[in-house]
Amino acid sequence: HKPSTGFKEGETMTHKGKRRLVIFLCAAAVILVAAGIIRVKLHPPRPLHEQIADYMYHSRTDPKLEYLVEKYGDEFVATEYGSIQSTRFPGLYVNLRWSEEDQTYIDNYIVYLRREDLRAILAPTVQEIYDDCKVFIAPYTPSPDFDKNTTAEELLTTFGAERNPVVSLWIYTKDDTAEKDTDMEQLTSKIQAMGYSVDVGVYYLSEENYEVVNEDDYLNYNIGAHQDFYEYFENVYIYPDSFELILSDWKEESSK
Asked: How far is it, in rounded angstroms, from Cα 246 to Cα 256?
């Protein structure tokens, strides 16, 4: 005859099960606490100022990157300073501007995408006037109306902000400067006859500096703008029915 314990057999088994469960949970808790301590030691929380800086970087940079990727495709990266660079044109920083009126960013990246088409349209006219020249195409005024399907012809016949031209035509030449006024008049007449609006800059360079200018050197893209680089420089807005001198007269190099 088995002595009585005061509990039924089923009740005794349930009690043992509860003890095992408690032991298991305690062991699990110890393991989790230990893992948490190790994780904190290996990956301590970032200082608050770093978290704030990271938040500010992404809140400023991510919308610009998302805008460009959605508009043109996945060919952009954000730099550590929050600028956006093109992977298609290495070294090119994309110029973005926020438009309060349109409540979106506006850009002029499409000019780079249509650069060869624009050159094919404008370069022959330039080369009729200047014997030795390099023809560079660059964006001037951005517009919210552009997308990846905008054509070169549309860029040349559309106004940007404040009715300024959208495309810049930079002409670097080593021709004789004695004919610079006549050459500019001819260029203006020819572009007007084509019905285009263009921001034009003409740089007269020495032989040495002429060899230096490189359209794909985006970090020094407008090297000709440095006053000790050119001999003469003029800038003009050309429209189909008018033109506007940005400079009152030819600008000479600083040493003259």
From this structure: 21
Per-residue pLDDT reduced to its tens digit, 75-131 = 999 998 889 999 999 888 998 888 888 888 999 899 999 999 999 999 999 999 999
pTM of the model: 0.74
Q: Is the predicted pLDDT of residue 253 greater than 50, yes or no? A: yes
| Phi and psi at residue 189, to the nearest 5° | -60, -40
Burial of 203 (0-12, 13-18, 19+ CB in 10 A): buried
Q: Determine the Cα–Cα distance for residues 105 and 102; give it in Å rounded to an integer.
A: 8
List C-alpha distances in Å: 195 to 27, 121, 191, 216: 83, 12, 7, 28
Rg (CA), the chain: 34
Distance CA 112, CA 94 (A): 10
Helix axes 180-194, 115-129, angle to 10 degrees: 130
Alpha helices in the chain (DSSP H): 9-42, 48-72, 109-113, 115-129, 152-156, 180-194, 207-212
